[in-house]
TrEMBL record:
<keyword id="KW-0812">Transmembrane</keyword>
<protein>
    <submittedName>
        <fullName>DoxX family protein</fullName>
    </submittedName>
</protein>
<keyword id="KW-1133">Transmembrane helix</keyword>
<feature type="domain" description="Methylamine utilisation protein MauE">
    <location>
        <begin position="2"/>
        <end position="139"/>
    </location>
</feature>
<feature type="transmembrane region" description="Helical">
    <location>
        <begin position="154"/>
        <end position="175"/>
    </location>
</feature>
<feature type="transmembrane region" description="Helical">
    <location>
        <begin position="124"/>
        <end position="142"/>
    </location>
</feature>
<keyword id="KW-0472">Membrane</keyword>
<dbReference type="InterPro" id="IPR009908">
    <property type="entry name" value="Methylamine_util_MauE"/>
</dbReference>
<dbReference type="Pfam" id="PF07291">
    <property type="entry name" value="MauE"/>
</dbReference>
<feature type="transmembrane region" description="Helical">
    <location>
        <begin position="83"/>
        <end position="104"/>
    </location>
</feature>
<feature type="transmembrane region" description="Helical">
    <location>
        <begin position="55"/>
        <end position="76"/>
    </location>
</feature>
Amino acid sequence: MKLVTKVCWLLLGALFIFSGLIKLNDPVGTALKLEEYFEVFAEDFGSFFLFFKDYARTMSIVLSSLEVVLGVALLLRWMLNKTLWVLLALLVFFGFLTFYSAAFNKVTDCGCFGDFIKLTPWQSFSKDVVLLGLWAVVFFNQRFLRYSFAKGQLGVMYITLASAVAIGIGVRALGHLPYFDFLPYKVGNNIGQLMKPREQARYQYVMERNGETKTFDQYPTDSTWKYKSMESLNPEASKPVITDFEVSDVEGNSYTQELLKGNKLVLIVQNTNKTDRERFKAINALMEAAGKSRRNIQSLTITSTSPPKFDSFRHDVNLPGPYYFADATVLKSMIRSNPGLMVLQDGVVKAKYHYHDIPDLYKIEKLF
């Protein structure tokens, strides 16, 4: 039992640190998931929960950092009993969220491991049940973990350092872009190719005749077999990775295919109400300079704001170039910055820039 306890202790601590770091890699994405939960709770339990939406980014860093710190504290066996009680509270909280999502089909992806590992609601709940099992083994066998690797002031120093590192990782990612991009629009990806299935769909057919059930790779020509069911043999490969990318002009005409041709400098303004207006002087200068480049770079803007509202906004900030429209969720997946810049060459993502990291024109020209 001693060995089992130590294995469970190690796994529990490591998983909490891993889960926290994955979320801190993309605190904006974690905040979006929290906002989704708040909207669901507001609908089911009262509008009070909408109050928390404005603090979603802060909460994403705090909760994610807490996971990391608790994982470190557990592995150091620092104040072990108290650490385990706090871990239990967090596990029960996450368990409730995942069960509620699974049972009532409210949030289809809990965001437990960010966009690195996608879990269905029931998979997420099962994961929390397993973690509770690990916790129980550790909690009821603490006698095998009596030795602490960090006592007294040394322990406080380690936990303070872990807190500072975790929060620092999250704050930097919040003010720039994720360290690792796991979304379909990451640098190097070809958007046009990802809008197409990798393989042609293949199916197997379950047929029945005289009480006999048989599976066929192709639909049988023998009419004595009666159709029972059909299953896809390659559901992931036969489905495009990107299914909702559509860009249109103010009149609703599609601009998607044109966007995926040539050299493009794309400014993404997700929401004019929350965008950082102070950055548009530098952005405007870059877009105007790109339009004069010998690299034939076309500058344009994509937004999810309504046409009348965006037209008023672009005049306020003197935004140059044409503008187009896309779904808000798509734009949030394209870049975790509002505004943000994306460089495309024939649909291939060459670079992405947060508004805190607006590049010089020569850096963009070097990409082509």
